[in-house]
Every structure is written in C-alpha cells, then in structure tokens.
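Q: Convert this sequence to structure tokens.
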Amino acid sequence: MSTVIPIREAVSGCGEAPVLRERGQREVFCGLTGIIWLHRKIQDAFFLVVGSRTCAHLIQSAAGVMIFAEPRFATAIIDERDLAGLADCNDELDRVVTRLLERRPEIKLLFLVGSCPSEVIKLDLSRAASRLSGRFSPDVRVLNYSGSGIETTFTQGEDACLAALVPSLPASHASAPAALLVVGTLADVVEDQFTRVFAQLGFGTDKPAVRFFPPRSANDLPEVGPNTKFLLAQPFLADTARALEGRGAERLAAPFPLGVEGTTAWLRAAADAFGVDAATFDKVTAAGRERATNALARHRLQLAGKRVFFFPDSQLEIPIARFLARELGMHLVEVGTPYLHRQHLAEELDMLPAGTLLSEGQHVENQLDRCREARPDIVVCGLGLANPLEAEGMTTKWAIELVFTPIQGYDQAADLAELFARPLVRRMKLVA
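A:
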C-alpha cells in the first residue's frame, strides 16, 4: 500500500492560505439540476418546478428521460397569462397540484421548487406549500425551496431542498442515546457500502444505528436533536448543516469521503466520536483501503505529474483537488470554487499542497486568461466552457459529471480517478 500523510502532519497546507476572491460573469447551471439526483434518492417524492419552458427543457434534457417514462418531476409552466396578471397563479397552481396527486397517488412528499421566473414575479411558494399541505395532509406533505440560478450554483439546489426538509424531521427524545446521521445525497450503492462498513464497526449493535439524510422514503425521516452527531457527505450543504445545528445536532469535523485518505478520515471521525477502538477500525477498513490503493496505482501512472486547473462550479473542487494531488500525484495549477466554507473545509484545506492557488467566486474572463496562460493538461469546468476550451486544444472534464457519478468511498476511488484519466487518454489517441 502506498504511504499517505496523516492529516495531523499536514501542517504546511492551505488552512491559512490567502484566497483570490473574484466577482464578475459566471458560468454555472441553476439549482434545478439537483432534482436529477434528488428524485432518484427519495423514491416517493415529487418535484414540481414552478417556472418557464426553459426550466422544463433544462431538467428534461439533463435527466435524459424518455418520452414514455413517468419521472417524479415536472414543470408547472408560467406563461404569458400569468405574467400579464390575467390568471391567478395560485389558483392555477392548486389546479395543477390537485390533478397531479389524483394521477400519482404514490406521492408522499411534494416539493414546490421555485425558479428564476417565479421569483421575479414574486410568487409566494412558501404560502402555497403551507396551504396545499394543509389540504392534502396527512397523505401528502408539501414543502418548497428555491432552485433559482440567481447568485447560486447548481449544487445549492440540494442544500436548499434538504434545509427545507429539516424542520419536518421528528425530534429525538432527550434520553435517547447518541445517534449518527450521514447527511447528503449518496447513490444507493454507496449508501449500502457505508452501511456495511458502519455495521462492521459496531454501529447498530453496541453502537447507535446509522441513518442517512435524505432517506429513500419520505416516511422514513430520521430523528434529530441534541443527541445527534452528523457527518457531511457533501461539501455544499452549508444551509442544511446550519438547520441541523439549529435543532441541536453536532457536526463531526472531517474531510469528505473521496479517495482512500478522505474516506478513511471520514469514517474515523465517526469511529472516534462513538468510541470505536483503533485496532477494530484498522481491521475493518484494511481490506477497503488496500483494494482502493491497488486500484488507484494504474491511474497514478497516467496522472502523476499532470497539471489540473479547476474552474468554480460544483463546490466539490477542493476535496477532489486534495485527492488528485495527494493520491495521484497531480499538480494543482488553480483550484477555483463558487463558495469556500472554511469551517466545513478546514480539514481539506490543511491537506492541500502548500502554495496552491485558491480562488472563490467567478470572473470567467479573468479565469480564462489565467487558464490559457498556464496551459494545464486538464481543465475541470462546466459544460458552457468545455467545448470552447476543447476547440482551443485543451483537455477538459465536465464538472457536473463529478456530481452525477458515484465517487464516494473506497470502491469508487478508482472510478473517480478514471474520470480524469479517460479524457487524457482520449486526447493522446486523437493526437496520435
């Protein structure tokens, strides 16, 4: 197994490094994109976007839903009559929701998702959700959140959704034992893998059971309270973490579960918090660590020494940059992120190579100039920038693919590495 540097020894990282803060033109998707992975996770929830035809086209094309399928999302179109005030938007919304629930009785949780158009006309979806929830409860709970792309990045759609769901979580009894909550949408296969590891560590037997949020069923909401400790599985859940802390829960500080190092440190944070001894932890995680390290070795041969530039897009940039630099030997030219939450990313920042250029926010023209000057081997960016940069001869990786793909945990470490190796291999074949 390859040697990795323990977090405590990474004293020369970027914890106190200056950050280049930029404000200007931005190139990101809107928060409606989060519906694509959220609707797959909460299997009896439905996401009704209140927006324009553009909103409908966005999520339809992003999801790749076939015309004869019945997805668990839709768009209530705001048309010219609504904008002109010739129709009562609330009456129209009530009619659409009633028809939807009559047709789809399996829906237990309905999200009214705001968009740029609904916010521009100041449609009060919070009041609409309260009204409709009173009408259809207890069979259906109706909540709302904003998926608007105004001053946000696309992963904040999940954050807004989960934060809206936190007040619905049942309160745990004051006398109940401490509980562990894993927060953030994970693919079912990844959740199952973590569940097995936690079980081997004693959770659910001599330690508390582990719950995941969001759950797979809207009626299986985890309890939360002062006896709840939670681990963030995603770095973009600032509002959700704040809402959980407002309910008395305690966040366990940890890197994010990407790669061997991140996954081990993330699991260790839970193990330490609940008294799992070091020998048991090492024994349980040894096979996963060795398996992932061996799988990463062939990708390291392709990626070591390659230079990577991150445009701000998903808020996954810093954990992924840490993984690429420390486990695959890549050189970080610039790591840009839409928003840098220093408290949630403290452990990640400490593990970044000293001297890494960090940027927060976006001024796309300035960043393009720096990228062109640096001529990195691979650029991580949004779809809007990828094709133009490819036309200029650069190799790119779509940032949104890092959100859609299961990348957390030991068994996905090599899959994450391959996402970066594959574009470079493709470029080499094209050049040859």
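The chain has 17 helices and 14 strands.
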